[in-house]
Amino acid sequence: MANTSLAFYYLARHRLSFKTFFFIPTTLALITTLFVLFYISSSTSHLLYFNHHHTHILYVSSKNPPTGSPSFPVSDPNVSKHQHPFVDLSNRSGGGGGGGRSVSQRSAIVDLGSNGNYMNNNEVFHDRDIFLEDYNWMNRSFRIYIYPHKRKDPFANVLLPVDFEPSGNYASESYFKKVLMKSHFITKDPAKADLFFLPFSIARLRHDPRIGSPGIQDFIRDYIVNISQKYPYWNRTNGADHFYVACHSIGRSAMEKAWKVKLNAIQVVCSSSYFLSGYITHKDASLPQIWPRKTDPPDLVSLKRKKLAFFAGAINSPVREKLLQLWRNDSEIYAHFGRLTTPYADELLGSKFCLHVKGFEVNTARIADSLYYGCVPVIIANHYDLPFADILNWKSFSVVVATLDIPLLKKILKGISSDKYLLLQRNVLKVRKHFQWHLSPVDYDAFYMVMYELWLRRNSIRLQLSTSIDSS
């Protein structure tokens, strides 16, 4: 009681109110928050320079550990350091290639090579010599096993390639599977396989009346259970050496009831945003969304491109809404909403820059459209892990504009000199072949480029989780 009286006497003597007791901890919390933010900021800059040396760990459940496999990280002893997909490939030649970095990391140190020197953004490849060497190696040695299914299978329409030439906005998924099935990369001997292909088609499941969008998650879950009971391959790594391909954005949510696919398997998807938790850069790969075309348009270089920039599309995102609000009535930037009165191809052929603007997702077919018609793509889609970013130097043939800089769009584009623009366009014509599909694949086309991305990811390091994680 005496102590309580003393406390009240002290408060009265110093005229302290109860607000003081709230002010002091609030101040301390604010100071602590500022300190943490400062620490994160200083640490992040360090990580951006050295993160490309890390090794991605794929988690393997302890319920079905590989036979004879240790419970600590292991790597393939037959693969030397320079072969690892996540080691900076430029170390092999001493140059500034940056081939092992993700596009997000490159954007932070875009003009610096691994040795701190200026990186030549005029070249379309991060390191052409290494790419060609590895590409030839891939063609000789890379093998994929596909889980077998027969024509009489009740879901053959989902698990087997389509029996027609793919078309439309999401054709990339069907093209890849159709070409892969007939390629020299396929092996019927699982012991020789570097990777295992999960052949279900998200697009076909979506249109199957027995499944539809609501039933895709259950189908994927049941399919994984089926192959894990029938074959030993999934259980050896819990899917770390498996991959699937999807172009429709619904593919991102399709794995919600098969979390090991999302966490462990390689996801080759068009909706490749590293802002989303379901997509893991380095482990997963970006699939280019391409509207198939059979022939090249003539005389691209000699065309008179009178318009500064062009965009046409639905207003289905705040980014597009902002673009239309600011530039809809501009005389040099043609931003259209709704149906065009002129052919889409003519607009692309008549414009210097063609805008790829984020809609529902970061991806659309507009980048491939731009490249096809020789128009320099302008990418306005934050957090987009661009296709083939492990191989191609996007700054050499495109312009990336942050969504916050949309009000500065004309200033940015008009600030590009004529010489710089001509270099960008020449490089567009160089990389165009990498964004085209063929039923009979052609060297360095979209199929081979996706195969190369998979080849980079063929070696994985596995870590056995404790049983407590599995049981939770």
Summarize the structure in short.
Keywords: Glycosyltransferase, Golgi apparatus, Membrane, Signal-anchor, Transferase, Transmembrane, Transmembrane helix. With 472 residues, this protein is α/β, with parallel strands linked by helices. It has 17 helices and twelve strands.
List the helices and strands and how they pair.
Blueprint: H1 2-13, H2 18-50, E1 57-60, H3 103-108, H4 128-141, E2 144-146, H5 156-159, H6 171-181, E3 195-197, H7 202-207, H8 212-230, H9 233-237, E4 242-246, H10 259-264, E5 266-269, E6 285-286, E7 307-312, H11 318-327, E8 333-336, H12 344-349, E9 351-357, H13 366-372, E10 376-380, E11 399-400, H14 409-414, H15 418-431, H16 446-456, E12 461-464, H17 467-471
Parallel strand pairs: 1-12, 2-3, 3-4, 4-5, 5-6, 7-8, 7-9, 9-10, 10-11
